[in-house]
Amino acid sequence: MPSKADVKAWKAQLVAQAEQQILKLTDSDQFKKYLNTLAKFHRYSARNIDLIYTQNPQATQVAGFKQWQKAFNRTVNRGAKAIRIAAPIIKKLTPAEQKHLDTTDERAIVGYRYLPVFDVAQTSGEPVLSAKDFVKENLADHQNVTSLYNAFKDYLNQQTDLKVSEVPLATLNGAKGYFQPSTNEIVIGGDESDNALKLKTLYHEYAHSQLHGLKSAFKDRPRAYQETQAEAVAYVAMQNIGVDTSNYSLGYVATWAKDKAVIHSALSEIQQVSNKVIELSDELTKQLGLQEAQKEPEHDLKKLSAQALNKSYQSLQQKIKQATDSQQKSEQKTQLNYVHQEISNRTQKQLQDFVRQNPKIKQPVQDEVKQRQL
Description:
Blueprint: H1 4-23, H2 28-40, H3 46-55, E1 62-63, H4 65-72, E2 74-76, E3 83-92, H5 95-101, E4 107-119, E5 123-125, H6 131-139, H7 142-159, E6 163-167, E7 177-180, E8 185-189, H8 195-211, H9 223-240, H10 246-249, H11 260-287, H12 306-322, H13 326-357, H14 366-373
Parallel strand pairs: 6-8
Antiparallel strand pairs: 1-4, 2-5, 3-4, 7-8
């Protein structure tokens, strides 16, 4: 069993490796991968995002061993290597400890422990579905991208102290938009034909308003630093809704990164604003109906597309978790079983079709199967 000193050294090495990996993010392709991770894990702390990225840049959804079993009906594959994340150790304070720490809080964080989690790719079982997959399909339609742009613009104009206006692109000297700190105004090229680029520009300028406005602690950052941060937030926000804008302007994103202190500070700031933008966008897409299932899975399951079927499965799982009425919960579980059976039937049919199309693949004869079972 490892000693306390060995465990402490291993934890320090884990964090140090994360720092080394972040330093390599000055390469734009690697930084893109980090931003993808940020979009997927925006509710994790900056420290845990770093740890997840360091250990598995391809991770898309992580959970503990038992959580995969209980919440998702999936099992971790044999031999899977765990990803370690930091979890706070919270202690109830005695009156003496409260006095020593000069606090009235009853509990405080006294340390951290490193817990094992596993990525969905390291597990097997029932399908894990994402609401954003459905949003992505909807937002691929330019009309829906435009709807989200207009909803975001209206929200900023009506619910914040920002003013968002549009002008012809020809008046912007080659830019797509800008943020004016002195008037707290965002100006967007209104005749931009690419709706995804127009939405990304609004995210970019909104990030400037939050990070680099007159009252912001980061308003005096160098220009390259500010532009990098704003573009990183815009990229994360667009990735979150399933629209890839990497071809626009990520080529220079990490050119400012020089040392650990700057990198950690900048990425922490990016995360804070990214969280805000992602949560706001999620709320707006819900209001616009872009996260609602197209059909309830009560009838005609065979007519549903694979994606709609999967969406219905996810929707029912969520409803079952939230249901308080036992009869309603039972009915929803029955519906879920029907959907699960349809998914299983389609999978079996695909396998059978594959076998028919590939007759040269040898199938075990019945006697061989029986002998193997003995």
